């Protein structure tokens, strides 16, 4: 396993997952995204899916050495990642009564 790739990927996944949990549980979104996000809970679920996809990519890309499972695992991880981004985009486009600034 390449540690210089795994550590930043895990840290990034944890930060995205923490932000997703805050959005799902409390409706809190990072200040730089508040103006764009209209449905914070949907956006948070998208962040959780993206964090899961990054961990999936790490497991299949770095840890599993079986040549047969690696390409299909990373392809599935990429599909999950795209699905997470689509869910996040739906959270930005979904109707809601969220205004530009302030906290929820």
Topology pattern, helix = H, strand = E: HHH
Average of the residue pLDDT scores: 88
* Distinct helical segment count: 3
Counting helices, strands and paired strands, the structural category is mainly alpha
Strand content: under 5%
Query: What would you report as the Rg, rounded to the nearest angstrom?
Result: 16 Å
- Low-confidence stretches are none
Distance between the termini: 42 Å
What is the oligomer described by this structure?
single chain
Principal-axes geometry comes out as: elongated
Number of strands: 0
Assign a percent range to the helix content: over 70%
Major sheet = none
Q: Could you give a quick summary of the protein structure above?
A:
The chain is mostly helical and 104 residues long. It is built from three helices and no strands.
Notes on the structure:
The chain is mainly alpha-helical and 104 residues long. 70% of the residues lie in helices and 0% in strands. The chain is built from three helices and no strands. It has helices at 3-26, 40-63, 69-93. Helix 1 runs antiparallel to helix 2 (40-63) and helix 2 (40-63) packs antiparallel against helix 3. The longest helix has 25 residues, at 69-93. The protein starts with a helix and ends in an 11-residue tail after the last helix. The model has no long low-confidence stretch (mean pLDDT 88).
């Amino acid at each position: 396993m390449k540690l210089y790739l795994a550590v930043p990927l895990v840290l990034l996944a944890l930060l995205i997952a923490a932000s997703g949990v805050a959005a799902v549980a409390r409706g809190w979104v990072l200040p730089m995204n508040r103006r764009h996000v209209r449905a914070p809970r949907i956006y948070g679920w998208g962040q959780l899916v993206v964090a899961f996809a990054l961990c999936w990519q790490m497991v299949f890309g770095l840890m599993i050495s079986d040549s047969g499972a690696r390409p299909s695992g990373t392809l599935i991880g990429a599909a999950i990642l795209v699905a997470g981004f689509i869910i996040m985009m739906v959270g930005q486009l979904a109707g809601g009564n969220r205004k530009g600034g302030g906290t929820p």
